[in-house]
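REQUEST FORM: STRUCTURE PREDICTION
Request ID: SP-0412
Submitted by: Lab K.M.
Chain count: 1
Length (residues): 299
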Amino acid sequence: MTAGQPLDILMPFYGEIGLMQEAVRSILAQDHEGWRLTVVDDGTPGPVAEWFGSLDDERVTYLRNETNLGANANYRKALGLAQGSHVVMMGADDVMLPGYVRSVLAVLEQYPEASVVQPGVEVVDEDGRVSRPLGDLVKRRLQPKGAAPVAMAGEALAASLLLGNWTYFPSLCWRTDVIRRIGFRPDFHVVQDLALLMDIVLDGGVLVFAPEVAFQYRRHRSSDSSLKSVTGYRFAEEAALFGVMADACRDRGWPRAARAARLHLTSRLHAVGMVPRALQAGQHAPARALLRHAFAIPA
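STATUS: Completed
RESULT:
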C-alpha cells in the first residue's frame, strides 16, 4: 500500500436503495479513516442523489450514469475511477465490518507483493442474519486453513480456485495497477470474478488469504447470480471459462490446474443442486441444461 494513500472503495450500484444505504453506512463506520468511496449509480429510480447529498462527507463521491450501462460495463467504468494504489469493488448490498479497512491495510503492509487480499467473510441473508448455505460451507472447506494470513500463487493457487472458487468478489482488495492492466473479460457477466482472478494468477500474481472476519456478504435468492444459476446461464459461462482456463493452464505447464479446470467438480455439484429449484419453477429446459453441465453431456 502506498503510504498516505486512502483505500479506494468503488460501489457500482443499481438496485435496492435501502441495502445500498446500509452498505454505505458500514463504510462510514470504519474504525480506520484511510478510505475513499465512489458510488457509480447506473440509473436507479428514486431520490438517491438527495440521500448522498445529505451525508456531507468529502470522502464520499456519488456519480450517476446518464444511460444504463449494465452491470459489467458499470464495473469497468467504476474501475477507471480508482485513484489509489489499492481498490475494493464492493457490492451495494454487502456490509463492511468496522475493522475491514484496518485489517486489509495491515495485511498489505505485511505482504506488499500481494495482488489480491481476501479477508475473512461471513454470509448473511436478506435480513442481515448470519447464514450458512451449503455452497458457502463448501467454500469454507476449500479455503486455506490456519489462523494467520497465507500467501498463495502459481499452480497451487490456480488449482485451488478451479476446484472451487472460495473467494467473495465484493470483499476482495486488489492492486489497482494489476486489476486495471488485466481488466474484466467483456464476454463474461456472471463469472467475471473468477476469470479476473485466474488471469491475475496466470500473470504471476499473489493472493493473500487473511482469515480475520471483516466483511459480510449478502446471499439472497433474488440475486442476479442466483437467478442465472436456476436458468443455467451461470453454468454455461462457467463451462466456457473452465475450457479457456484448462487450455491456458496446460500451455503454462500446470497439469494439476488444467485437470481441475477440466473436471470443475464443485461447479457440476452446484448444477445438480439447482435442478430441483428449476423443476419447481417449471423451467424444464434449464433443468436439462443443468444436468448436461453436471454430467458433461454434449448439448
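NOTES: The radius of gyration is 19 Å.
Reviewed by: T.R.
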